[in-house]
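Input record (Table S2, row 328):
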Amino acid sequence: MRVIGIEGTAWNLSIAIVDEKDVIAEAEAVYIPKHGGIHPREAAQHHAAEIKNVLTKVLSAAAERGVTPHDIDGVAFSQGPGMGPCLRVVATAARTLSLKLKVPLVGVNHCVAHVEVGRWRCGAEDPVTLYVSGANSQVLAYRGGRYRILGETLDIGIGNALDKFARFLGLSHPGGPKIEELARRGREYVPLPYVVKGMDFSFSGLETAAEKAVNDGRSVEDVCFSFQETAFAMLTEVTERAVAHCEKDEVLLAGGVGANGRLQEMLRTMCEERGAKFYVPEARFLKDNGAMIAYLGLLMLKSGVRTPIDASAVKPNFRPEEVEVTWR
Ligand code: ATP
Ligand code: FE2
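Output record (fe (ii) ion complex):
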């Protein structure tokens, strides 16, 4: 089976064609805000302007590998969660494509797609997943036929917190990699609020305190280092507790922030100490990507799931628990 998938919940408009084994073709267009953070309407305009171009690129890359539009068996799209205006552009394109190719449509949950692409690429069986991106920070595990959120951020995602702090420092978007670079040169730990409540965590107060520490004269490198140490320790603590509670022995990292070497190191150490396996896919499958949408679409279509046009409205607050896992 071959499925084309469209992702465009936020900054990355990405389209891919996959089969059960691999990614056949992929293309993307990245929206970079001119100033400040991501503006939903601007991002949606970007996606609308670029989608024809990206689709053409994917189809010609697939043609070079002998795959034509007639070989495509389904169209998948990220139905949510994400920015409403962006989701609507993607959904409109997906409906059109499904009607044109005369193949079924399937709307997929973006968070579940991050998990499934990680399992696919790393061979993890039944992991606890730490999904950390700009807008989302969640600890997920499969239980009773659904992916449950065991813990999550009470305010902003860790990526947004890093990006916001980077903006305060005058650095351009995305800030995460720049903070990681600065943090490597940090030496002294500056105490910052460590907020874990039950299985949930919060980053907003930490970000404000980091700004204050810089205003109070602490070195930028030390504050970046301390920001990462504090935030990533919070994420690692909750992930470890989830592993213990669910009696799982695998941890999977997902989302753009997963590219961070220090976060990977902390999770790897925690896993080693617990005798659990740690999995992290290649960076292109960590960040938002069309392949994960196409691949989850393929799993869903194979298990008989279809999204009729009249049920294909976007779901900006789509929770992973809402999805019945029919493919495991
Ligand atoms: P969504 O929230 O819908 O999943 P997103 O727009 O946040 O999507 P991702 O690609 O998953 O998309 O993540 C982007 C985030 O990852 C940005 O906040 C960026 O700063 C952060 N990021 C990327 N590389 C690193 C890094 N090396 N260290 C820390 N953060 C990083
Ligand atoms: Fe994402």
